[in-house]
Specification:
Layout: H1 16-22, H2 69-94, H3 108-117, E1 123-125, H4 131-136, H5 141-149, H6 158-161, H7 172-186, E2 193-198, H8 205-216, E3 221-227, E4 230-231, E5 234-235, E6 256-260, H9 264-282, E7 285-290, H10 309-316, H11 320-330, H12 336-357, H13 378-402
Parallel strand pairs: 1-2, 2-3, 3-7, 6-7
Antiparallel strand pairs: 4-5
Helix pairs in contact: 2-3, 2-11, 2-12, 3-9, 7-8
Length: 405
């Protein structure tokens, strides 16, 4: 009888990795991943939109709500008057009454909505393109256009109107706003500083310095980036590789949002929340509005060199005024009579501006030396006296040519 059958069991080879997996230590619960601190700062993946281009309520992925009809009706009125002002100012350049004018046609929602989100006591820091915003804020249109006519650097009183001079250097107002806002906070006031900038300005050092300072000192500043797709002729693709300009705030710890800049309801809703955030002491807020500049950079620019007509026509169908008017009609907040009344107001506004701008101002050449320094330097005094002598000589020559009467 032979030996009993013994079933062979294959040898088990245990690797170091397998041993670690089998050890009691490996069965401990995994550590919880810490929450991403940047999550609260992120803008929505798509721009906030409350009204679609056809003027009907859009499905929103955020908790923003469409503002009340009365508020939107006032926004509509200011936008219509603002566009008529813009068209008239453009015409004034062709008539030689303005040296240059940067139109903001197509950006009416971005220009005007902030005026409803802010208080009169808040500060506004505009660029050279914000003429429409300033007249919507209630500034005298002739005073606003004084800079572009070449009379004075600033035609209005910045302190009285809580509105900084229109800034021609890109992004320098970002730093000014942060300083003013911080100063107001130190004095116990809940003032908000609102900054208008373009997409090209986000490539400037002053933008980053201003946002960083505001974030560190929790200064109540709202930065509105009007992304109109071109920094003069430079397209957005040459400005940033980020998903959107709104992401630029995250690196400084600033909450950010992006919005359809041709949706007036959404722009007002987003900016109202941003202003409330800053006023409550939570620090700055960055908003990127996706919009489009319908006209050339200025009347001295030829936009056909860097963009084609098809692109412009595509954006013409997204007109912010038409979008808002359609919505207001749909909720019975606006009718033909209301539209006609606003149009008539806009025409009267343009006529008054035209009449006042056609009056040639009396300019004293010696005023060129006023307000350069608090105490004129010796060189400035010398230059002023030289001009004074030249004026006197010119007057004497003219008197001599006319002779005795």
């Amino acid at each position: 009888m032979g030996p009993p059958h013994v079933q062979e069991v294959p040898a088990v080879t245990t690797t170091p990795q397998a041993a670690r997996r089998a050890s009691p230590r490996s069965r401990r619960p995994a550590k919880k991943t810490a929450a991403d601190p940047a999550a609260a700062l992120l803008p929505t993946a798509e721009p906030v939109r409350l009204l679609d281009p056809a003027g009907t309520p859009a499905t929103s992925l955020t908790d923003h709500v469409i503002p009340e009809p009365d508020t939107l009706r006032e926004l509509y009125r200011r936008m219509v008057v603002g566009r008529r002002f813009d068209v008239q100012a453009t015409a004034l350049t062709k008539q030689g009454r303005l040296a240059v004018y940067p139109s903001s046609r197509g950006q009416e929602a971005c220009q005007v909505a902030p005026t409803l989100a802010l208080r009169d006591t808040d500060w506004v820091f505009p660029t050279y393109r914000e003429s429409m915003a300033l007249v919507a804020r209630g500034l005298d249109p002739v005073e606003v256009l004084t800079l572009l006519r070449g009379d004075w650097h600033c035609g209005y009183d910045p302190a009285a109107r809580r509105t900084a001079p229109q800034c021609t250097p890109l992004a320098t107002q970002c730093v000014h706003a942060a300083g003013v806002a911080h100063g107001e906070t130190l004095q116990g006031r809940d003032t908000v500083a609102f900054v208008y900038i373009g997409d090209g300005a986000t490539s400037e050092g002053d933008f980053h310095e201003g946002v960083n300072f505001a974030a560190v000192f929790k200064a109540p500043v709202v930065y509105l980036v009007q992304n109109n797709k071109y920094a003069i002729s430079v397209p957005l693709s040459r400005q940033t590789a980020a998903p959107s300009l709104a992401y630029k705030g995250i690196g400084y710890g600033v909450p950010s949002e992006q919005v359809d800049g041709n949706d007036p309801a959404a722009v007002l809703a987003v900016l109202t929340r941003a202003v409330a955030h800053a006023r409550a002491g939570h620090g700055p807020y960055l908003v990127e509005a996706h919009t489009y500049r319908m006209e050339a950079h200025t009347n001295a620019d030829d936009a056909t060199r860097y963009r084609d007509g098809a692109e412009v026509e595509q954006w013409r169908d997204r007109d912010p005024i038409v979008r808002l008017e359609t919505y207001l009609r749909s909720v019975d907040a606006l009718d033909d009579a209301g539209v006609a009344a606003v149009a008539q107001e806009a025409e009267e506004y343009a006529a008054g501006l035209r009449e006042r701008m056609n009056a040639t101002p009396t300019v004293d050449p010696l005023s060129l030396f006023d307000h350069v320094y608090a105490e004129p330097t010796p060189q400035l005094v010398e230059q002023r006296e030289q001009v004074r002598a030249e004026l006197a000589a010119a007057q004497a020559d003219q008197a001599g040519q006319e002779g005795p009467r």
